[in-house]
Amino acid sequence: MNTTNLITIIYFLGLIFGAFFLGLWDGNTNIKKGLMALAWTAVFLISLFYADRNKE
Q: What is the dihedral of CA 37, 39, 43, 44, to 10 degrees?
């Protein structure tokens, strides 16, 4: 399996976990939950960058 595909699958599983169990998309979200989702996206983008960099 391609490293990029694996990273993307882990990212989406994390989003689903955050949506159902942490309540990231509830009506009463606060700044802490928003920053947590933003940090998860930043980790995703950094890991994609390094995976593509190591591929070459």
A: 30
- Pick the more confident residue, 27 or 38: 38
Does the pTM exceed 0.85?
no
Which residues lie closer than 8 Å to 3 by C-beta, 6 or more apart?
51, 54, 55
At CB < 8 A and 24+ separation, what contacts does 52-56 make? 52/4, 54/3, 55/3
